[in-house]
């Protein structure tokens, strides 16, 4: 009997296969690289706050926000989503938008308040971790159109935006003696709002359109001019408005007799779980 000799793979095909494996592994690194860069920016902000460069520290957190917003989009565009990337992103967000803003605002304005100062900073950091853990647990339960509570990047922008605004001397002179009190209130508000059930618009349900009305172009141009003319003040005001929209919408839903969309989604999930448990008990 003639035995077929095994066919040897050519060096070219071996090289192409190994190159494809390297490229495949490398492209999974790409979104995680943005996550690592976001974490690095936040860590750099902490170091700058320890050195007394509070303006640079606050800006570093905003750079961390931009990089954090890119990693998920890059993963979806390159089809490289992974559970490892999700967990790494959550851990990085806990540092970038929880620990870093708390330390920056504490070093800048809360340290003079003693125990109240570090307590407010800790509450903010702890609420940021709670918010991220709750978000991971409620993936697929809460609609993507809404955030359950203030998202941690927006909370960090609110806290660090105040620091940036104060460092650039945009606060009125009469307000300067109350700077620590204002920082205390903003830090507590941002932290507690993160763990609330207030619905904040996420923008994930907006579809990309090819044509937009002319007035939208005018509004965008006006916003660009306003932000570029006084960046720190404009950004802080915009995030202050966003940080209030969840409570305003929740009040509007109550006024119109409509359910809170977050609570409605949670109630639907609880009803589905109860029905499933009841069906398991009745099954012989």
What would you say about this model in short?
The protein is an all-alpha fold. The protein is 74% helix and 2% strand. The longest helix is centred in the N-terminal third of the chain and has 40 residues, at 11-50.
Count the DSSP helices. Answer: 9
Tally of individual domains: 1
Radius of gyration: 24 Å
Give the neighbour order of strands across the main sheet. Answer: 1-2
Notable traits:
284 residues; mainly alpha; Four Helix Bundle (Hemerythrin (Met), subunit A); two-stranded antiparallel ribbon; 9 helices; 2 strands; 74% helix; 2% strand
How does this model look, in words?
- The chain is mainly α and 284 residues long.
- It has one domain (17-274): Four Helix Bundle (Hemerythrin (Met), subunit A) (Up-down Bundle), CATH 1.20.120.
- Helix 5 (152-167) runs antiparallel to helix 6.
- The protein has helices spanning 11-50, 54-77, 83-110, 115-137, 152-167, 179-194, 214-229, 231-255, 261-282, and strands at residues 146-148, 199-201.
- It is built from nine helices and two strands.
- A two-stranded antiparallel sheet has the order 1-2.
Topology (SSEs and partners):
Elements: H1 11-50, H2 54-77, H3 83-110, H4 115-137, E1 146-148, H5 152-167, H6 179-194, E2 199-201, H7 214-229, H8 231-255, H9 261-282
Antiparallel strand pairs: 1-2
């Amino acid at each position: 009997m003639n035995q077929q000799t095994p066919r040897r793979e050519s060096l070219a095909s071996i090289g192409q296969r190994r190159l494809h494996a390297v490229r495949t592994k490398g492209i999974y690194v790409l979104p995680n690289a943005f996550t690592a860069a976001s974490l690095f920016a936040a860590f750099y902000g902490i170091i700058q706050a320890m050195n007394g460069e509070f303006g640079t520290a606050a800006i570093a957190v905003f750079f961390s926000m931009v990089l954090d917003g890119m990693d998920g989009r890059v993963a979806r565009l390159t089809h490289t989503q992974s559970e490892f990337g999700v967990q790494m992103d959550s851990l990085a967000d806990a540092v970038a938008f929880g620990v870093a803003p708390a330390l920056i605002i504490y070093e800048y304005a809360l340290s003079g308040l003693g125990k109240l100062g570090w307590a407010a900073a800790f509450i903010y950091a702890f609420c940021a971790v709670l918010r991220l853990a709750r978000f991971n647990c409620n993936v697929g339960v809460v609609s993507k159109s809404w955030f359950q509570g203030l998202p941690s990047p927006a909370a960090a922008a609110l806290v660090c935006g105040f620091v940036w605004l104060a460092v650039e001397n945009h606060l009125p002179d009469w307000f300067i003696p109350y700077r620590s009190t204002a920082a205390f209130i903003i830090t507590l508000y941002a932290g507690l709002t993160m763990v609330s059930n207030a619905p904040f618009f996420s923008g994930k349900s907006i579809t990309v359109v090819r044509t937009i009305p002319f007035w939208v172009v005018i509004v965008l141009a006006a916003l660009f001019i306003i932000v570029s003319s006084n960046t720190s003040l404009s950004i802080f005001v915009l995030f202050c408005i966003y940080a209030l929209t969840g409570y305003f919408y929740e009040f509007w839903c109550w006024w119109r007799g409509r359910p809170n969309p977050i609570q409605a989604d949670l109630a639907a999930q609880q009803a589905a779980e109860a029905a499933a448990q009841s069906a398991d008990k009745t099954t012989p």
